[in-house]
Write a structure and sequence with these properties.
309 residues; alpha/beta; Aspartate Aminotransferase, domain 2; Aspartate Aminotransferase, domain 1; two-stranded antiparallel sheet; 11 helices; binds pyridoxal-5'-phosphate
Length: 309
């Protein structure tokens, strides 16, 4: 008799073909496909902003950080969940406070939540166990009355509805997981739905080591980069934009790190490393990869000559 697992991901041929396309494209980290996926998710979530991460654990942690949860803050949650639900509270130095579940739904008992609120309570993480939604009306009524943030652990409930409204399309922060055993999967991955566009820059910064990407940077390569340092008369952003008009991508690796806000706060300042600062301001990475043809190299040179003349 065949073994019947409790779950098995269903990966169809178009998905396999789609992955092949991505692998062949050469852009295998977060790129256009992730952007398109985020846009599709946002549509399902009533147009609210959605950002993808590498797990539903990361989305919970970032959700807590975006809600301002930190040192000593109490976060009430269910003891009946995957352990990530509480671990993320420890990760941000908060204190997970468990309350019992309702034996009928197996979800967090909202009466017990109300009783557990103390002056140190800052947030609730409700969990929709097995995909059954926690009572959103009572949850948000309680959160409003007690001035608490909600980070919905909807890892298991993507696609579920509350009175006809898809989870994620309303409420505070909502965290989905696309881990292999979920209803839809990206093997590993998660999405965070934000209640407010204004949280997007911080969310994106937290996703990438505090770095905010502009539209033009971020081409990635190994150390075989072909880099030029532009003359001071040429503003790098203009060079990049004009090369783009010629259909050529240009990267930036790297602005001098000691001038980032984080390191300025630690005491570093402009003028300490004049070489790194000048190069960091003017450096540009031109295309170079194994499958470039000689004609591509000619195109890059021709475009650069025109842009710089
Ligand atoms: C309820 C619950 N919370 C959090 C997570 C964490 O998600 P991930 O495995 O994508 O990190 C999962 C999934 O495994 C989950 O089921």
């Amino acid at each position: 008799m065949d073994f019947l697992p409790f779950t098995r991901p269903d990966i169809d041929e178009p998905t396999i073909a789609g992955v092949g396309e991505v692998l062949r494209s050469g852009w295998i980290t977060s790129g256009p496909q992730v952007k398109a996926f985020e846009a599709a998710l946002s549509k399902l979530c009533g147009g609210r902003p959605v950002r993808c991460f590498n797990s539903g654990t990361a989305t919970l942690e970032i959700g807590l950080r975006l809600a301002g949860i930190g040192e000593g803050d109490e976060v009430i949650t269910s003891p009946l969940s995957w352990v990530a639900t509480a671990n993320v509270v420890l990760e941000v130095r908060g204190r997970p406070v468990f309350v019992d579940v309702d034996p009928r739904t197996r979800n967090i008992d909202l009466d017990a939540v109300e009783k557990a609120v103390t002056p140190a309570t800052r947030a609730i993480i409700p969990v929709d166990l097995a995909g059954l939604p926690v009572d959103r009306d009572r949850l948000y009524d309680l959160a409003r009355r007690k001035h608490l943030r909600v980070i919905e652990d909807a890892a298991q409930s993507f696609g579920a509805n509350w009175h006809g409204k898809p989870l994620g399309s309303f409420g505070d922060l909502v965290s989905f997981s696309f881990h292999a055993n979920k209803n839809i999967t990206s093997a590993e991955g998660g999405a965070l739905v934000l209640p407010d566009e204004r949280l997007v820059p911080l969310c994106e910064a937290l996703r990438l080591q505090g770095v905010v990407r502009s539209g033009e940077d971020g081409m990635e390569s190994n150390w075989h980069m072909f880099q030029v340092v532009l003359p001071e008369r040429m503003e790098r952003a203009k060079f990049i934009a004009r090369m783009r008009d010629h259909g050529i991508g240009v990267g930036v690796h790297y602005p001098a790190m000691h001038l980032f806000k984080l390191y300025r706060r630690l005491g570093w300042h402009e003028g300490q490393f004049p070489h790194a600062e000048r190069i960091g301001r003017q450096i540009a990475t031109l295309p170079l990869f194994p499958r470039m043809a000689d004609s591509d190299v000619d195109r890059v040179c021709e475009a650069a000559r025109k842009v710089l003349s």
